[in-house]
Amino acid sequence: MKYDVKLLSGTIGAEIQGIDLNQPFTPTSKQTIRQLLLDHQVIFFRDQDISRAQQKALAEIFGPLQTHPAYATAPGFPEITILESTAEKPSKIDTWHSDMTFKKHPPVGTVLRSKIIPAKGGDTLFASMTAAYNALSDRMKTYLSGLEAVHDFSYGFRESLAEPGGRERLTQAVADNPPITHPVIHTHPENGQKVIFVNKLFTTHILGIDRKESDAILNFLFDHVKIEEFTCRFKWTPNAVAIWDNRATQHKPVNDYFPAHRCLERTVIDGDVPY
Q: Which pLDDT belongs to residue 275?
């Protein structure tokens, strides 16, 4: 395959030019896309007017797919969730996070395709959790090693639950997703790198230490992971596709486009138990 790679920062992110996602995937193209993701942690493709079936096939390169308990899905495609923000119902999530860490098996990765993009604003920021881990002092790495933290669906969706009718709408989602424990530092299963695996949206506290100490450590990590040197920024255009490694990154939508309309369609790939 012939393609060009445009790096978006010194640490994370690459825009891939020359790969047509409309074409049937071959063993070679699948391996190429998988390796590009491992190399850059988040990769972007522009001007890819692919169908929902093609988006699903792209995501399936990385494994079986998950559904999301809180979002509407595309007709005929329960694996594709609709992420839409309008003047009447603006997006609520504006916090750095990894997707769905409230699951026992958090996603391997996410495929996000843009459909409606505001004239200005609406970028997405990404951060490398391997770079963030590597920048910690040896003493902090030793302290964090072996610690576990709680991730909670209800905590991450507390604003939605507080809306009129929200708790009734999400009753089953809450029942299906009780708080779960993951290591604070986990090992990437494909490259063996250490990764910070707590995030501000879903992580509530660290087990086995005083709550004040837990809050202090988590707040330090939440600030640390978004240092500019670990990040890149992507400006969306219509029919752009982003694929990120959810095991090694966090991301944050920039909600600076209100009241404009923004709509993206997301597919997430089932993962393993972090270790």
A: 63
Catalytic residue among 40, 97, 186, 188: 97
Identify the active-site residue in 99, 152, 245, 262.
99
Q: Where are the domains of the chain?
A: 4-269
Active-site residue identified among 68, 182, 251, 262: 251
182 is catalytic: no
Give the pLDDT score at 76: 93
CATH superfamily of 4-269: Clavaminate synthase-like (3.60.130.10)
Q: Which runs of consecutive H residues, i.e. helices, occur in 94-239?
A: 129-134, 138-144, 153-156, 158-162, 166-169, 171-176, 211-224
Residue that has been written with the tokens 């409230």 in this structure: 102
Residue indicated by tokens 């495609």? 77
| Bridge partner list, 242 | 44, 112
The structure tokens listed for 227 are 């240092």
Reported as type and span, the H/E element at residue 58 is helix 52-59
> Has 99 been annotated as catalytic?
yes
Q: Considering only CA atoms, which of 71, 127, 44, 87 is closest in space to residue 257? A: 87
pTM: 0.95
Per-residue model confidence (pLDDT) at position 1: 73
- The stretches in the chain having pLDDT less than 50 are none
Nearest to 264 by CA among 68, 126, 118: 118
Active-site annotation holds for 251: yes
Q: Coil, helix or strand for 221?
A: helix
